[in-house]
Amino acid sequence: MARGMPEDPELAVQEPDRRSPGNMEGKRNIQIIEWEHLDKKKFYVFGVAMTMMIRVSVYPFTLIRTRLQVQKGKSLYHGTFDAFVKILRADGVTGLYRGFLVNTFTLISGQCYVTTYELTRKFVADYSQSNTVKSLVAGGSASLVAQSITVPIDVVSQHLMMQRKGEKMGRFQVRGNLEGQGLIAFGQTKDIIRQILRADGLRGFYRGYVASLLTYIPNSAVWWPFYHFYAG
């Protein structure tokens, strides 16, 4: 018997030849996990925990990027490293995390995104068994829900990122001190929310909302069908 051939002839027929570059069976047929297959407790607990760890590590660079984009020319910072050092010297480590507490509420949008995606797929399955249709509708719906939650939180957190000792950077300036600790941090949040409401009303919390929808809905609606196409 040839080396590597199974002794049972039926197995020889059923087993795909994974050595052949043209054979896609060894690379595909990935199981699609639907909503009913998920362990909900593990999904929500571990999902939030992992996202939070990532958020803690990258948030200072999100803050620096935002300030670099808003500043006039190189009036304050000459680059990423320069901004990092100057913020650290002026405000300490807490200065790199301005708006972080508010920004963490966007974790909710991530969980809502996946929940909406899975539940929408389940709903659409009553009308169509096509993975393409289910993924297209679910992906777009999930982004709509997620951006509706994310945009107002981002608006507030970005205004908080602009708070610094000395020269005013953003449209709004928090009154009082900028220690950024405990209740004071939430006091800053309340102050920013009041100023946005006073200046722009509720619409102020949705600046860039349409642009976000036009960016993320098509992206999500197209990405998921391609994922299932290559997985299945």
TrEMBL record:
Mode of membrane association: Multi-pass membrane protein
Domain of life the protein comes from: Eukaryota
Region (Disordered): 1-25
UniProt keyword annotations, A-Z: Membrane, Transmembrane, Transmembrane helix, Transport
Molecular-function annotations in GO: branched-chain amino acid transmembrane transporter activity
Locations listed in the record: Membrane
Record InterPro entries: MCP_dom_sf (IPR023395), MCP_transmembrane (IPR018108), SLC25A44 (IPR042164)
Solcar repeat residues: 41-123, 130-232
Family, similarity comment: Belongs to the mitochondrial carrier (TC 2.A.29) family.
Keyword Transport recorded: yes
Iron-sulfur is among the record's keywords: no
Major place of residence: membrane
GO BP term, example: branched-chain amino acid catabolic process
Protein name: Solute carrier family 25, member 44
Gene name of this polypeptide: Slc25a44
Biased segments, Basic and acidic residues type: 15-25
Residues spanning the membrane: 43-64, 204-226
Gene Ontology annotations for the cellular component aspect, listed alphabetically: membrane; mitochondrion
